[in-house]
Amino acid sequence: MPAVGHSVYHAGTGASPTPFTCNICGQSGPPPQQGQDPEVGTCSRCGSNVRSRGLLWALSQELFGAGLPLPGFPHLTTLQGLGIGDSGVYCHRLQEKLAYHNTFFDREPRLDITRPPESEFGKYDFVTSSEVFEHVLPPPEEAFRNVCRLLRPNGVFVFTVPYSLERSTIEHYPDLHEYTIAQLGGRHVLVNRTRDGRVQVFENLVFHGGPGSTLEMRIFSECDLQRMLLEAGFHSVRIYGEACPEFGIARDGPCSLPIAARKGEFALGRETTRELMEQWKRVVRSPWLRLGLKLRLVR
């Protein structure tokens, strides 16, 4: 259960089979089919799937209080964001709108979330991540604490990760210390030497992205995720379970939904607020906007 003074809540569920406009690239298309794998790309232009559209919709809600499509995000060069293994479907588009950059564990620009540089602490207004934290080295609690350290006092962490509704997380290799993955008899095995010198051998490894690629370290449970985030220093956790047919976001089940963990009540910084107001002034002064209002084409 969350500690007193913290909050955890779910948004509602439901879906409607209506045509959608992709909130990542703006392409219109038929809705995802009921029961369709949310990992399957359903946008004919950018290839986005339900998961990536849902993550960007949650991010928009957390940053701007409304479900804006990514093409409609304001240009804010002072709103600092960090991606941890984000999808290429949206990271470049997000970089065009905000002061955001994406990072990787295995290539440049690198970031190991289990050991981030202290120079990055307190630097970001938001951190995003897509399907990464099931792969970080144990214990995952340390990775969540580091995300919290990266954020400014009013920052938010928006991410997706596979999880179940079981009572507790299944940690496949809790004593992982010095390890290697080798092939034995045509199969991959993990050989680990624990801190106290014991040798462990694990078979039946689960990889995401194909054999020998990215090793699954655990299967989170929803309740453990909430607990870990609150104990890491986040003030509140929201699980985005509602459907958004307008953007092709359908929900067929309660698992692996976008999660937003807030370090504090979000407030734009002074420079970002000034930048946003300058953009709004330019819009208000536009003769095309005044004409649209006069003709009642804009409300």
What does this structure look like?
The chain has 299 residues and is α/β, with parallel strands linked by helices. The chain folds into 2 domains: 7-171 and 216-268, Vaccinia Virus protein VP39 (Rossmann fold, 3-Layer(aba) Sandwich); 173-213, no CATH class. It has 6 helices and 17 strands. The chain has helices at residues 50-64, 91-97, 140-150, 222-231, 270-284, 287-294, and strands at residues 7-10, 20-21, 28-29, 76-84, 98-103, 124-130, 151-160, 163-164, 170-171, 178-184, 187-193, 199-202, 207-208, 214-215, 218-221, 236-239, 259-262. A 7-stranded mixed β-sheet has the order 1-16-17-7-6-4-5, with helices on both faces. It has a 3-stranded mixed β-sheet with strand order 8-15-9. Strands 10-11-12 form a 3-stranded antiparallel β-sheet, with no helix packed on it. The protein is globular, with a radius of gyration of 21 Å. The relative contact order is 0.18. The model is unreliable at 1-6 (pLDDT under 50).
